Amino acid sequence: MGWRCVVVDTPCKLSVGNNYLIVRNDEVRKIHLSEIYCLMLACPAVNITGIALCELTRNKIKVIFCDEKRDPYGEITGYYGSHNCAKQLRKQIGWSAAVTAFVGTEIIAQKIRNQAAMLHKYSFDERAAMLDGYAAEVVYGDTANREGHAAKVYFNTLFGMGFTRERDCDINSALNYGYSVLLSCINREVVACGRLTQLGLTHRNEFNKFNLSCDLIEPFRVLVDEYVFLNRDRSFGKERKFELVGLLNKRVMYGKEFCLNDAIGSYVRNVFDCLDSDGQNGLSLYRFA
36 and 21 in contact (C-beta within 8 Å)? Predict the structure, then answer.
């Protein structure tokens, strides 16, 4: 498993040779493929060979393409993330409605608990207590929409009563960018496990290619939220984008200390173990601290 997220932000040519990613512009630099878990092409003026794309995909390296504003726009994931992907897909298709509802509900509740922990951390204790109450009230399928109520309290507490997630502003741009980076990392792990990102637990939009990943991301969103809260007075530009990508190397606790990228991989496999065993294997969700 690689550990580097490589961001290419200047015009260059990329190729692969002898298991190295080769970057050519004014100089030639090489990075061994075994060290890379994600390659972000943040400059539209990057030329990359077809062989390089094939080798990156074969090595399960996520390739993210950015648009002219350097925002994540698309990605490449391999068709065959696992040597026994047919077996893994049969497991996914066979998940029972009861266990998917249970896991989906627990993920939503943990997302709200993490939001509450975030508010407690920065001394918004009264609002945090409200979120703790919402988390305790989550039922199967979140039919009472406690997730939505919690989000309104949470974001208004962090960014002001006039803030909404629909506003065109630097805060939302930073949140969306950070979430996109997290989602790409989760997509990579889902595909590496031989599963389909389209078949979700609670997200079931027919137009969403990443329903399952949108379910799995929820407990980790708080890490992006914290970064954006602490940098809320800075304009959103190139430097902050690099810092948000760098969150994948942040040290977090998930049973033991991991960098976030590795914690996400362990978490995704744990969720699949729980679903595959019809709930017999325990579910371990990320807890913000």
Answer: yes
98 and 65 in one domain?
A: no
Q: Say which amino acid occupies 160.
A: G
- End-of-domain residue from the set 58, 76, 94: 76
Residues of the chain below pLDDT 70: 1, 80-82
Decide: 76 and 56 in contact? Cβ < 8 Å: yes
* Residue 281 covered by a domain: no
Distance CA 139, CA 282 (A): 19
Last residue of a domain, one of 17, 52, 76: 76
Residues 246-269 have pLDDT tens digits of 999 899 999 999 999 899 999 999
Query: How is residue 283 annotated by DSSP?
Result: P
Asked if 131 and 181 sit in the same domain, the reply is yes
Residue 74's contacts (CB-CB under 8 Å, 6 or more residues apart) are 64, 65
Q: How far is CA 45 from CA 61, 172, 236, in A?
A: 21, 26, 22
pLDDT tens for residues 90-131? Answer: 999 999 999 999 999 999 999 999 999 999 999 999 999 999
Alpha-carbon distance of 118 to 276, in angstroms, equals 31
Coil/strand/helix, residue 142 = helix
Query: What is the extent of the structural domain holding 14?
Result: 4-76
